[in-house]
Structures are given as C-alpha cells and as structure tokens.
User: What shape does this take?
Amino acid sequence: MRSIQARLAFGLAGSLIGLFITQWAIVNYSIHHVSDEIIHNRLQQDADSLIAALIVLDSGKISLPYATISDVYSQPFSGHYYRIDGPVNTLRSRSLWDEDLPKFELKLGEHRFMGTVGPLSQQMFTHAQLIKKGDQFIAINIAHDVTDLVNDVYELQIGYAFISIFALLVLIIFQTGLIRRGFKPLQDAQKQIKAMQRGEIGQLNSKVPNELKPLVGEINRLVSLLSQRIQRSRNSLGNLAHALKAPLTVLTQISNEKEQQENDHLNRRLKHQTEYMRELVERELKRARLACASGPGRYLKLPEDINSLIDMLEMIYRDKDLAMDINVPADASLPIDREDMMELLGNLVDNACKHANKMVSLTAVANKDLILMVEDDGPGVPAEKIKELTKRGIRVDESKVGHGLGMAIVIDTIKHYNGAIQMGESKKLGGFRVVVKIPLSK
Assistant: This one.
C-alpha cells in the first residue's frame, strides 16, 4: 500500500485538476456564448435598422436612402456589409466593393446566424432572415468582421488558462504543505520510535494530536510492560543463581569429605551431578538473556562497545602481553541487542586470548549483515575436532580452565538471530579462526 500522505496528495491534486478543467471548460463555453450573443444582438439591431429604412416601391423595387445608413457600410472593406434581395433587384453595401455575400434559401420568419469567410479572408459572422414588407418577400443578409473580437476572446482564454494553471499550482503546493504539516506528528512519532530503538529515549512523547493519542499511549504501555517483565525475569534469574550457589557449594564440600572420598562410585556420581547442575544453571541464565533480547533501546555501538571489551580482556590477560589487532568501522550503531553481541564477542575473543601466543585479531564489517572474524596465533584446532566445539560442555583443550560452555553459548546466540558460523584455520595468524555472520534487521 502506498503511503497515506501520497494517496491524499495525489487524490487532492487530482480533484483540483479535475475541478479546474471543469471550470475552464465552463468559463470557455460562457465566453464563447456571451460573445456570440453580443454579435448576434448587434447584427439583429443592424438588420432591424435596415428593415426600418428600407423602401419598397410599387414596381417591386427596393431602395435604401443613404442618409439612413451608417457610414461604415460605405467604406470599402470596412468589415460591415449587407446584401438585401428583393423580388426585382438586389442592394449591396458599398463596403463590399466588388465582393459579394452568399444568398440563402430561407423561409418566412427564419433566422440564420453562422460564421463565414468574407472579403479579404475576413472572419465573419452572418445574420440572414426572410421578411415580408408590404406584399413583397425580402431576404436580408448582414455580416460583420469579428477577427478582432475572436483574437480578443482567444487572448482572454489564454490569459485565463495561465491564471488558472498558476492558481492550481499554488493550491497544490499549499495543500501539499498542509498535508505534510498534518502528518508531521506521525513523522515525529516515527523518529521517536527509532530513537527508542537506539536507546536514546524510553517513552514516546504523549503530546500528540487526539487521533494519535491512543496509539502512542498503547505503545508506551507495551514498552513499559515489556521492560518490567524483562527486569522481573532477570531479577528472578539472579535470585535463582544466588539461591543455587549455596546448595552447590554444600554439595561440593560433601563430595570432598573423607567419607565420600572412600566411596569412589558415589563420589563420582555426586561430582557429576554437581557439575551438571552448575552447567544447567549457567546454561539457563544465558538462554534467559536471549529470551529477553527483544527489550527496547539497546543498540550495539561497535567502536565504543568493542573497545571497552578489549580493554577488559587486556587487563585479564595482561600477563600474556597480547597484541590486539582491531579493525572496526567507525561510528557504526547497529539495530541488534548489545548485551547478546557483547556476550558473543566476549566468548569468542576470550577463547582466542586463552589459546593465543602473542596476537589476537578482531575484524568487524557491518552492511546488510554483521560479520565478525576472530583469529589467534595459537595451536589451532584439528579439523576432525572442530565439530566437537559446538557440543555443550566439550573442551578440546582440557588444559585450559572452563566449563566448555562458551562456544555452545555462541552457537545459541547465532541460532537465535538466524546467523551462521564458520570455524577453521587462520591463514593470517596460523591459529584458530571463527567467522560469524548475523543478519541485521533495520
């Protein structure tokens, strides 16, 4: 569906164009009709004057005293002409010179008004009628040159058309501005939602038009409710973790007691179950974070967040004096949960630091997808053991401290975001390389 703003703009513009076209057609017709009526009435008045001055003799001849005729009929090609046909003779105005007007076959009382071409190709309007004066039938044909009038009407039409087009454009621009101004609260709300996604604000501004208040209020209510649920969930999980620490500690102490050491079989079972419980607690805590990843306002700021992570890891591994090669795009704020990505990156870089000899490399590329590549110059992992890294609790290098959950957590995070992971040998540093690809939904 096209935007409502575009639909309104096109709809109103189309309505205005249709209105102006209809108005122009009506005005154009009215101008022509009025001008025709004016010419017709003038020709009828001239015809009435000639009829009143016309003399019919007993012989049937007709005559027209020049004293009763306007001078315009005496000037050659003046644009005013007449032709009167009687039963015996025909009278023509001197203005015709050697030209003539057409003769029409008319009925008594019939009037004919039409446009013709006159002398010198003048644009003419002709009025013809058949009258009866005395006992004689007389046909009168009067023509006037209307070239100047037609030109004036044409100029009036062109001027009116330009004025109409200008007024139409002004109205379209004005109505477009009104529509944009009317939709500005929606655009402001859209900007606020994006700011909320970036974590800049926590609620939408409730000072909006009445039509938007229910929508903004519902969004604010849902965001507040979601934030409260996320906070309650994390608080509960934290309480659960603290509550389980004491029983796990007790169980660990019991497994180390002398009586339990003497019972080797029971001791192994107890240690196995204790370790299993610890792994389950850590696993569920990590998965709970993923379940809460939809919280608003937590964008990943690559340079800032990665630098803080690297600073922390450099402090942890300061005894190894590792060189960190970091390649991250500047000013990249990504629409993806910061906590999840920091957890993912933390596990990857932490593993690289554990096994690296002197150098760790981290490269990030953000386009349609977020691509993270972590490499180290450590011993690497044999190809046949790479698949085992994705199994929860499996550690290829048993000499390093840990529970083997780091890579499994990375896999869970990647699956949660419908991403992909590749593991293998680093051609750059000779150790282990992990490449993670996560789609970015903008």
